Structure formats: C-alpha cells, structure tokens
Amino acid sequence: MVGPYICLKGKQKKSVLLKKKLKAPIFLSIIFLLTACGESSRKLVEDTAKNTEKEITYAVTKTDAEWRAQLTDMEYYVLRKAATENSFTSELLNNKEEGTYVCAGCATPLFKSETKFDSGTGWPSFYQEIAGNVAYDVDYKIGYPRTEEHCATCGGHLGHVFNDGPQPTGKRHCINGVALNFIPKDQQ
Length: 188
Ligand SMILES: [Zn+2]
Fold this sequence. Notes:
The chain is of the alpha+beta class. It has helices at residues 2-55, 64-70, 73-81; strands at 99-103, 109-112, 116-117, 125-126, 134-139, 146-151, 157-162, 172-175, 180-184. The strands form 2 sheets. It has a 6-stranded antiparallel sheet. Strands 2-1-9 form a 3-stranded antiparallel sheet, with no helix packed on it.
C-alpha cells in the first residue's frame, strides 16, 4: 500500500509542477492577448473616428480655398475653423426685428427671431433652433465637454448649446453673430 500511495503522491507532485510550469506561459499569453485586444480595439476606435469624419458629406461642400474666397476673414475663422468672435461685437446682438437668422456660409435658415433672447453673454442667443437644420457634436477645446453646434447643410461652426436657457426648452444656443445673416420678415 505504501508503494502506490507514494507513487500517487509522486504523480500529484508531478502534475502540480506541470501546472505551475504551464501557469506562467498561460498567464503571459493572456496578458499578451489582452494587450493585443486593447491595441486593436483602440485602433478600431481611432479608425472609426477617422472614417466617420471622412464619411460626413454635407449638401453644401466646398474646398478650403473656395470658402476662403467666399467668406470674410472673420466668417471663415468662425465657420470653418471654429473660432469664437469677441463678445458684444456682433451687429445682430441687439437686433429685435422679426425675421430669420440664416447660415452666413450657405443661407440655410437656422433660428427664428421669436426664439431670440438676451442672455447677457454678449453673443446672440436663442432657445430653439429650426429643427433639422442644426447638427451637434461634442468638443473638448476648453478642457470639458461642450455641445458644439454647426450648420447641418454646410458644416459651418455656429457656437455651443447649454442647458441654462429660458423655457420652453431650457436651452441656450450661444451663437457667433458672424456665422449668421439676418433676413427681415418682409424680405423672406
Ligand atoms: Zn451653412
């Protein structure tokens, strides 16, 4: 009985040793696989982001040179380079006429005068966009996420939307006046 017992113990020892020997390569392979997956999924996300960027085709699409030629310097930097005009500089800031605010790049109607309000920020502000004509994105330019908004027809940057606006929407569309042209009601 002693013999087989010892033998069994020996076998067990052997298999334990074998397991220990196996553990290291398996462990390393798992780490390798995880790292590899991490790399490939990150690459996938990057590729997807690049592809999405490439795939957005606006109804009005122009080359950078064409936009430069068509727009004033300020319109170009705001609409095409997402710059921000200085506050209290827009001629449209205190405009209280009835009419429609259209994209300075492609004339798509973006905001109606009845949704304009004085936010005190120094930028023309609206509590509602003309549905479907404005598109949204998120930017991290100043360190935290903000909802960027742009013309859905030409992709021109307009401004940002915040959740501290008046009722009925509670939204504050903070828009660069230079990105807009105003069409008075009687000229529509
Ligand atoms: Zn536009």
